[in-house]
Amino acid sequence: MLDRLSFPQPWLSLILFITWQLLSEGISGGSLVMGIVLAWAIPQITHGFWPERPAFISPWRMPAYLLRVLMDIVVASFHVARLILSPRKPRPVFVCYPLELEHPLAISILASTISLTPGTVSADISDDQKLLLVHALDAESDQEVIDAIRTRYEKPLLEMFQ
Amino acid sequence: MSLFAEYAICFLLLLGGAFTLIGAIGLARLPDFFTRLHGPTKATTLGVGAIMLSSVIYFTSQGESIGISEILITVFLFMTAPVSANILAKAAMHIGVKTTENTEGQPWEQ
């Protein structure tokens, strides 16, 4: 019974609570109560989807990583825009990307990053979580895509998680 | 509203509109399903981001309130766009959508 009333993920609950305060029109008694209800209910309902505790070793590296991803989105959007408007045909490639990350949360962050940065979409992950199937819109070779992901995104994530 | 804010808003709106348009053109021009997948997740990401940013500047310069909800919309969009792209790609692989001839490599069997 007590287990049901607890907050299994305090950070998630805190983020949900703050997000709800920002979304509602000004902080009032009602929004505070609703925020607490949501902060309790959502982690309880989604409990089964969180495989294990995320093991952040150095969370202060996160802002720098996000900034880099944001810059890459802007720069690479221009590349894709030029590619779409140019008469040249794109050279799509399916790449099997060998993962060095092991933590499920870290892998999903990497996969989301790959999907968000223009030119690559992560399509699937192998059952043993060792390979990530990536579709690149326009690339010279497999190795080019793998090297770019490895140095730009996986290295910083490795430092963050392991 | 200051002149600078007006210019910034105009620039961001045009940039956002242009990128959304290019994303739509890409949807029509690119050769197969997997390449078309890049349109809505990519160019549109920056397009919506720019339009949201112009909205933030507009409401801030009007002095009503800081546009926190716009920033949250952008954050939610950035979090959900990769998931939908991933699910679309998985579904396409599952039913075995054809790829263009010049695609290197193959999607693996499910």
Please render the helix and strand layout as text:
The complex is a heterodimer of chains A (162) and B (110).
Chain A: H1 2-5, H2 10-23, H3 29-45, H4 62-85, E1 93-98, H5 104-116, E2 120-125, E3 131-136, H6 142-161
Antiparallel strand pairs in A: 1-3, 2-3
Helix pairs in contact in A: 2-3, 5-6
Chain B: H1 3-29, H2 33-36, H3 38-41, H4 43-61, H5 68-95
Give the gist of this structure.
The complex is a heterodimer of chains A (162) and B (110). Helix content of chain A is 57%, strand content 11%.
Describe this structure in words.
The complex is a heterodimer of chains A (162) and B (110). Chain A has 162 residues and is mainly alpha-helical. Chain A has 2 domains: 10-49; 59-161, Alpha-Beta Plaits (2-Layer Sandwich), CATH 3.30.70. Chain A is built from 6 helices and 3 strands, in the order ααααβαββα. Chain A has helices at residues 2-5, 10-23, 29-45, 62-85, 104-116, 142-161; strands at 93-98, 120-125, 131-136. In chain A, strands 1-3-2 form a 3-stranded antiparallel β-sheet. In chain A, a hairpin with a 5-residue loop joins strand 2 and strand 3. In chain A, helix 2 (10-23) packs across helix 3 (29-45) and helix 5 (104-116) packs across helix 6. Chain A starts with a helix and ends with a helix. The model of chain A has no long low-confidence stretch (mean pLDDT 79). With 110 residues, chain B is mostly helical. Chain B has one domain (3-95). Chain B has helices spanning 3-29, 33-36, 38-41, 43-61, 68-95. The mean pLDDT of chain B is 80. The chains are: A mainly alpha (162), B mainly alpha (110). At the A-B interface, helix 2, helix 4, strand 1, helix 5 and strand 2 of A face helix 1, helix 3, helix 4 and helix 5 of B. Chain A: Belongs to the CPA3 antiporters (TC 2.A.63) subunit E family. Chain A: Pfam families: MNHE. Chain A: This is Na+/H+ antiporter subunit E.
